[in-house]
Automatic annotation (TrEMBL):
GO molecular function, one term: guanyl-nucleotide exchange factor activity
Biased composition (Low complexity): 199-210
Pfam families: WD40
Transmembrane feature ranges: 376-394
Region Disordered, residue ranges: 199-227
Organism domain of life: Eukaryota
Name the UniProt record assigns to this protein: Anaphase-promoting complex subunit 4 WD40 domain-containing protein
Organism: Austropuccinia psidii MF-1
């Protein structure tokens, strides 16, 4: 399994595969007067042997517009869906679409405002398109608002959801659709909620009805010296379609006296992956994946693999059923990862970072079986070593006994 890094000229915040070889990327310097341009890229990854790439599109956003912070791709319409803020002096048409032509060149298609109750600093941090028809689009903002829209008409399906309605400290972190389109999730720091996509019939002109809550998942109870929050959530796919995956970050609570520095053990700080049964809400498996918070997470299209990135700059790949570790790259980037995703054919993982790089990981088709084979060989090797040591000790004891006689 090989991996390599690709350098760019701007910080990168989001990434999405268009097909098995082409990747869309977004980033830039934001609205600050740093001189760093805000851009959308489309690149093509060549064969894994020469580890090269082609830059098919280098699209500069107009001056004053913010950096792309989230994106998704509509394969059928060949259209990119992005979260990009307008200049602060204008109406904030943050939901953008761009058509992609046969040469992978971008052309602006539409721009509209969905979020109303926002500040100048708020932006569209989540953009997620459903897999199955009828299509839905979920967009979430740093104002903790989640909207479910019809696609491609961008009409509200339900009234807007707010994760901070009862707790102002709660922050929106994730959204996703079940692969059959029957439900969607709202992931926040304090809970993960599953909602039905079924709508109630209403009279024309009546208020939008709220989405029907199916189930809520709460984070584990932390120890007295820890805080525990959800960081990400995704539905499983394929054979794991009835599984929900959540990332839980544990952080130490400061225990500072008047002239004391905080003291805590390494065990107080960790990231844990929990798989849940979405039918009955029970936890299936739990696995500690890092000693630092996880910053990005994704599930492969076929549902066999999971990918995560930690703030310790590592990237890992896990088996989605057993949660066993299959690959770990210890220093994938110089800064924490901002986005990670699988290719449609499940053969690649890419991660992007504000360090201006993309890490490309080529996945072997036999990654799960090769891990099992390696484990069995190691077990046999240790068993043979143990038997050899035991045999040698037995011979030594026998020799000493004869010598005494």
């Amino acid at each position: 399994m090989s991996h390599y890094s690709i350098e760019f000229d701007i910080p990168l915040y989001c990434c999405q595969f268009l097909d098995s070889d082409r990747i869309a990327l977004g980033g830039g310097g934001g609205t600050s007067k740093s001189g760093i341009t805000n851009k959308l890229f489309i690149i093509k990854i060549n064969s894994s042997k020469n580890q090269s790439f082609e830059k098919l599109e280098d699209f500069h956003l107009p001056k004053g517009q913010d950096a792309p912070m989230s994106l998704d791709f509509d394969k059928k319409a060949n259209q990119l869906i992005c979260g990009i803020n307008s200049p602060k002096s204008d109406r904030n048409e943050h939901l953008r679409t761009y058509s992609i032509d046969k040469k992978s060149k971008l052309k602006p298609s539409s721009a509209r405002q969905i979020f109303i109750d926002t500040s100048e600093e708020d932006y569209q941090k989540l953009t997620r398109l459903s897999d199955s028809a009828p299509k839905f689009l979920a967009i979430g903002g740093t104002n903790n608002q989640l909207d479910i829209l019809t696609y491609p008409n961008f009409k509200h399906v339900f009234s807007a959801l707010r994760c901070d309605a009862k707790d102002k400290e709660c922050q929106l972190m994730a959204t996703d659709f079940h692969q059959n389109g029957s439900q969607f999730l709202l992931g926040s720091t304090h809970f993960v909620q599953l909602y039905s996509t079924k709508t109630k019939s209403s009279k024309p002109g009546s208020k939008r009805s709220p989405a029907a809550l199916i189930r809520q998942f709460d984070p584990p109870q932390p120890s007295p010296n820890q805080s525990c929050t959800f960081r990400n959530a995704r539905y499983g796919r394929g054979k794991n379609s009835q599984t929900l995956y959540t990332i839980v970050n544990y952080l130490p609570l400061s225990r500072m006296g008047p002239r004391q520095k905080p003291r805590w053990g390494v065990s107080d700080r960790k990231a844990v992956l929990i798989s849940w049964n979405i039918e009955n809400g029970s936890a299936i498996r739990t696995k500690a994946v890092s000693n630092k918070p996880v910053t990005a997470f994704d599930v492969s299209p076929n549902g066999d693999l999971l990918a995560f990135a930690s703030s310790d700059l590592s990237v890992g790949i896990l088996d989605a059923s057993s949660l066993r570790s299959l690959l770990s790259i210890l220093h994938a980037h110089e800064f924490p990862v901002t986005g990670i995703c699988f290719s449609p054919d499940n053969k690649r993982v890419v991660s992007c970072s504000a360090d201006k790089t993309v890490r490309v990981i080529e996945i072997r088709e036999d990654i799960t079986t090769s891990w099992s084979s390696t484990t069995h060989l190691l077990f046999i090797a240790f068993l043979l070593l143990f038997l050899a040591i035991l045999f040698q000790l037995t011979r030594t004891d026998s020799f000493i006994s004869k010598k005494r006689i």
